Amino acid sequence: MATKDKRIDTYIAKSPLFAQPILTHMRILIHKACPEVIETIKWGMPFFDYKGPMFNFAAFKAHCVGGFWKAKLLKDEHNYLGERKNNGGEAMGHLGRMTSLKDLPPDKVLIDFIKQHMKLNETGINVEKKVVVKKELVLPQELEVALSKNKKAQTHFEQFTTSQKGEYADWIAEAKTAATKQKRLADAVEWISEGKIRNWKYLKK
Asked: pLDDT of 56-83, one tens digit each?
């Protein structure tokens, strides 16, 4: 029997107006495809579990996102989870930046993804974990300079773990334009000075 979480009702109600119909529609489809789904909140976001994690969504100021826990194993003939995936790194999840219902894949496609995921969870098939090879941390020169000009930020940064430092370093280094790099540098210094890690927005509140 389906389990609904009132916290998700509250989450949707507090989301921007454009996001509410998108989140509501995804939630309805999930329950339609998987009547035994269990709703919960993880890392501050609505999650939908069935014999393990299956799907989650989130709403931000200007867009919504949604992601499948085992997206890499889903059959996706029309590439709804491929080229759109993460929008070049600017959106979390696998369905891209959604600002209206028309940005969602067709209902039958989403339902198919959910049913595929149910079978994966039922059979215990998981995504193969990549072997992580530790690499030496190299900070972009621009980040080093920016931190050196803000003692508070530099102090907090030195207290971060190597992986937390690396997340900021990669984020700066991967900027494709000078304007994007400067914006990310400014945000990074501000967040670091407040003791925030790179993905602080997604932490459970």
From this structure: 999 999 999 999 999 989 999 888 886 4
C-alpha 145/C-alpha 24 separation (Å) is 45
Residue type, 137: L
Distance CA 170, CA 47 (A): 28
**12-33: pLDDT as tens digits:** 999 999 999 999 999 999 999 9
Query: What is this structure's pTM?
Result: 0.60
Return the CA Rg of the chain: 19
Q: Which residue has the tokens 């304007």?
A: 179
**Domains, the chain, ranges and CATH?**
6-123 (3.90.1150.200), 141-202 (no CATH)
CA 106/CA 11 separation, integer angstroms: 24
